[in-house]
Amino acid sequence: MNRKIAIIAVLLTGFLVLIVLSYVLMQRHWDLVARRLSESMAREIAAIVDLYEASSTKDDIPRLVDIGLTRFGLSIRVLPAGNLPPPQPKPFFDVLDGALADEIRTNIKRPFWIDTVGQAREVEIRIKLDQAILSFVAPRRQAYVSNAHLFLIWMVGASAIVLAVGYLVLRPALGPERSADAHGE
To answer: What digits encode the pLDDT tens for the residues 83-138?
Structure first.
């Protein structure tokens, strides 16, 4: 009986260690990817802000909006100068808010407002300038990869298969215990 429990315990322990290690490694990977995508988006926004501030006439603005959309995939609106909206409540587990806010703070160094909650598939960022507020709307996929659930499904499925194969291979060892007395020895 002790042998059966030991074999099952080893299989389950291996399964749990696999899940924990995979989760930790993949969480680090998704954090890094989110940071890199946020850095890229912040730099694109910084480039548009710099071009807007360097523009000499109002005729440059439509071209700037076109460049933002065609080159960077950012929908840009120029809003009148004023105050930014109040901050939105932040999701508890969302990596995007922190990463994107850090990168905007580093690359643009101006007051900003981020909405990652309002539209499920879009991120809105507003940058306050002296003469206007620039509003950027980008697809969420451009700033964050949100397919962690697929990895978890594959990981749990593969682990269950390995666990089942391990059980089938070790099943003869889990069979009824044979004592030496039963065989006449």
So the answer is: 888 877 766 556 667 778 888 888 888 999 888 777 777 888 899 988 889 999 98
Beta bridge partners of 137: 75, 124
Decide: 32 and 145 in contact? Cβ < 8 Å: no
The torsion angles phi and psi of 89, rounded to 5 degrees, stand at: -65, 140
Chain centre distance of CA 45 = 20
What is the C-alpha separation between 178 and 185, in angstroms, rounded? 11
Q: Closest Cα partner for 97 from 123, 120, 63?
A: 123
Q: How far apart are the first and last CA of the chain?
A: 21
Domains of the chain in start order, with CATH, are 2-142 (3.30.450)
Residue 136 amino acid letter: F
Q: Is 105 helix (H, G, I), strand (E, B) or coil?
A: helix
At 162, which amino acid appears?
V
Task: Name the pTM for this structure.
Answer: 0.68
Compute the radius of gyration of the chain from its Cα atoms: 27
Q: Which residue has the tokens 């940071």?
A: 35
DSSP codes, 14-64: HHHHHHHHHHHHHHHHHHHHHHHHHHHHHHHHHHHHHHHHH--STTHHHHH
Q: Are 135 and 79 in contact (CB under 8 A)?
A: yes
**Cα(130)–Cα(72) distance, integer angstroms:** 24
